[in-house]
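Supplementary notes for students who missed Thursday's class. We covered one full example, reproduced here. Read the sequence, then the structure, then the short commentary at the end.
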Amino acid sequence: MIDLLALQRASMQKSRTTLIFLSIFLVAVSFMSLASGNFTIGLNDMLNGLSPLQQQVLFELRLPRIITAILVGAALAVAGCILQVLLANSLAEPGVIGISSFASLFAVLSIVLLDSLLPQWAGLQQYILPLSAFVGASLVTGLLYQVTKNNLPTTKILLLGVAIGIFSGAIMTWLLYFSDDSSMRQMLYWMMGNLAYGADLIYIAVIPLSLSFLWIMRRIDALNLLQFGEQGAFQSGIDVPKLRIQLILCVAVLTGISVSMAGVISFIGLVIPHILRILVTSQLRFLVPASALLGASFLLLADLIARSAFVTAELPVGAITASLGAPFFIYLLLRKQVA
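Structure (token representation):
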């Protein structure tokens, strides 16, 4: 006879151990990212005192970039995890269903409008830009939510998201074609994903991102019930429509601010939650914080490779995340099927 209580205790212990391991791993990767790069800063330098140049590299370049990577990686992974529950679709993530692309389109439009049509407001770009990305992310998330309520088949929801992403890409291509050199560089930054310029938004981004994450954790039991169907959640006394609207706002905040800091970085929101589901458990009380930790660590590693692989050029971090993560995810899927 199977001892269900013992199995539950073992699962909880495994989840706690994984969270501790992921926390230590994130700290280790952060220190590695802080010390490594084209300009190496060793542990002895940190302990014995840094030169003025080392201090400048460490505190003005690398530390803000590391914080940006942690915020963006964690936000995208959590957004993907919540979207998969919200839309009841394992393929949902901000990049695949067009939320990141539409948020990026709104961010690019704000750049173009402020630079060319409203130059008197250009000084407020750092505030208007994340707001624009948030509006774009909210519109697409709200649209997909309405479509989900009408019981549209999953395939059509995904196709709708892909079409939104293609449409956003087409508009940005037109804007790129008619833009000057300065605007073109900023647009390419949004379209390819880059962590070099997100540091200016850290102080604006950290509060809404933290509040969204804390709210999600506060309603994690309701989310767990929603994961197994609206009917069961409703019978347990949960106001499902209200919960869904709150989830949409959280996903829009997480995605919109991430896009405003780093452009479009796909893959993390889709694959990180699935890797944890395969290796550990699908319980959201564990899955949400673990996704945040692993998403942050993964983006930090990808950024370290992007800025260290070549001395003369920095690679797009979005390409690195897909190149590293996709083969590992394929391996996990095949191994799970064989097992």
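Commentary. The chain has a mean pLDDT of 81. The CA atoms of residues 84 and 90 lie 5 Å apart. If anything here is unclear, bring it to office hours.
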